[in-house]
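Sample 3 of the quickstart, ligand N~2~-(3-carboxypropanoyl)-L-arginine:
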Amino acid sequence: MSSLRELNIDGLIGPTHHFGGLGVGNKASEESQHRASNPRAAALEGLYKMRLVSSLGITQLFLPPPARPAWGWLENLGFTGDRGDVLARCADISPTVLSAAYSSAFMWTANAATMSAATDTMDDCMHLKVANLSANLHRSIESEERHQQMCSLFANVPRVRVHPALLSCAPLRDEGAANGMRLCSPFGHDGCYVFVYGSDDGPSELQQSRRRPPRQSKLASQLVAQSLQLPSDRCFFVQQTPEAIDAGVFHNDVIATSHENLLLYHEQAFVDSANFIDQLSEQFSSRAKESLLAIQIHASELSLAEAVSTYLFNSQIVTDSDGGWRMICPSACQASDSVQSFLARLRRAVPTLKQIDYVHLQQSMANGGGPACLRLRVILDEEQIHQLPKSSIITEDVAHRLQSIIEAEYPTHVTMSDLMRLDFATHAEHIANQIARVWGS
Ligand code: SUG
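Result:
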């Protein structure tokens, strides 16, 4: 069997990161709306996490921030002519559209695509299905940009297929790997795929009055699984509970996570949870010849509200070069007694979990993005890894070049009024071009 490795791809946080209050169903984004942001601190926090993962012997890739404002997108909406006038008119007609055009939400790369590993697919290729992110105006801009970036990243890598997103429309709304989990044996084989959807868009669903709308449709999940060339007996489709979505769980990775044969999930994560876990355990053990380690966190141990405020489930679990597991948790987990007692229980149950690290990602967290939101996992073999462009890999040299640009050029204070300034827009584009050169060099 070929030896497989898990790589992480993070999107570098862009110079126009701000708090637009744009995230549908996203409590942190709602609460941070119109606060002043600090793009420099945000980008350095994200880069610190990339360096940490890289220091564990894990290949860490980065994607450059697409240029903002998205002038082409604004033009398509009818905002043509002199750029200074475009910004003023857009601010006048819809500040939301202006904020969307400047959005740095591409930083949350877990939403960029869904992946299937070559050892699991019907044609022995690794597949990436780019997400349309059509539940959010500001995020739907990302899908074409991501498709181009992924095509370029994997252009010379054998046995990789990058697929464009599903059509962008409400019945096909797809949020990428943030709503998927792959369970596998150590060394990455025998994958079973869990696709978590918020709604089946059936008549009873549409009649329910909900505080927050579900972002992922069942139909999209089914079509993504099909594009990924996965046999049906490797796929499981399970619905998120409406109470979790209403509490601010806008993606599955806010309420459940997985790594190799470990599945961590909250009691209120899934509809008909016990039945789903039984079926998954049975299929997993017959395929992988080992047991699924399914660990449930009870609502009495950690309430839904605290799961959302600490982002425990958005911790990033990785295997280091010695085979030990590391769990990279948001720093908010450190201050929570409930999370700390759960982590003690987890360490007793999972001896391979060697260390817990805490990372400060305040700027991303204030918009609803924790450590795992910032990365997309892909599984490749050695031969494929060798064909990746070197300049997209976080080495000390690449990290140093990115850090110099961030420290010299990124703004430290951005509010909505800055978005109307043409000099702010021009400078942001200049920074994006500099980073694109590092990526492409
Ligand atoms: O889609 N926030 C993102 C956060 C995405 C987190 N990703 C995962 N859970 N995988 C979202 O809601 C806020 C942008 C703003 O309000 O300016 C935002 O888009």
